[in-house]
Design brief:
This protein has 258 residues and is α/β, with parallel strands linked by helices. Helices cover 33% and strands 21% of the residues.
């Protein structure tokens, strides 16, 4: 199936299902993908099929491009609800991520002080203290946790290198609640194997992890665009609503994107 890549370092604004009018900040090359996960549902495609030929934008590249776009939006609109680190891979993998966060927060305060600053992250870089501290400064620190089942993680998220989900959960707890969790629920198959993670086998241990992490909001969603694995499918709305009901019964603010 077809997939998309995002302009770098600034793209949009786009209308986010979760965040509203979002101006994207892509810290990866515009012509390819660099990510510490290789998710089978990623709208940007699989890592091996999207290798870039250009470099990541520098911190100065990002600052200059963002300021130019914010100035344009100040003069012509629209006003963004949020500035979001996202795009063609894991944003926190940029070597200057903490410094870029400093720049983005300063520019936000200068041009659109009511806008929030968000990150969509897979949690693989939260063990770096500088990255962790930078994430704590953001309005919306959104971290992925698709499941707590190691085998399923290997299939759906395909981490690049070592990934210990229990240690990730412990580190997510260290945010002290200043974190949101986002989880992809889907159905369908991968090479003939059932990839449905909506049953109690996956949901109940995941709920236990969410309780430990104690996020102030949980986003649950399903595939909405074409994916690189054509045999994946959306989780039914009624199933997502059922999972959301379990979260709300535990006291968690929950946002569902169908």
């Amino acid at each position: 199936m077809s997939t998309v890549l995002y302009s770098s370092p600034i793209f949009g604004p786009v209308h986010s299902r979760r965040l509203g009018i979002s101006l994207g900040i892509n810290l990866m090359p515009a012509d390819g993908k660099i990510c510490t996960f290789d998710c089978i549902y990623c709208e940007c495609g699989r890592n091996g099929e999207r290798r870039p030929s250009s470099k990541r934008p520098s911190r100065d590249d990002v600052r200059q491009a963002l300021e130019a776009r914010l100035l344009e939006m100040k003069e012509q609109g629209p006003e963004p609800n949020v500035l979001t680190f996202a795009g063609n891979g894991e944003p926190t993998a940029h070597p200057d991520f903490p410094g870029i966060v400093d720049d983005v927060l300063a520019l936000r305060d200068k041009y659109f002080p009511k806008a929030e600053v968000s990150v969509l992250s897979n949690g693989t870089r939260i063990f770096d203290d500088a990255v962790f501290t930078a994430l704590m400064r953001l309005d919306n620190n959104i971290q992925k946790l698709d499941t707590v089942d190691p085998e399923y993680i290997g299939l759906i998220d395909s981490p690049v290198g070592h990934y210990d989900v229990e240690k990730v959960i412990e580190r997510l707890c260290a945010f002290g609640g200043r974190v949101m969790i986002q989880t992809m629920f889907l159905t369908g198959t991968l090479d003939g194997r059932d990839m449905d993670n909506t049953s109690d086998r996956y949901v109940l241990p995941w709920l236990d992890a969410v309780k430990r992490i104690n996020p102030y909001r949980v986003f649950i969603y399903t595939v909405a665009r074409e994916t690189p694995v054509s045999t994946l499918a959306k989780a039914p709305a009624a199933v997502l609503d059922g999972i959301a009901g379990k979260l709300r019964a535990l006291g968690f603010e929950t946002v569902v994107s169908y």
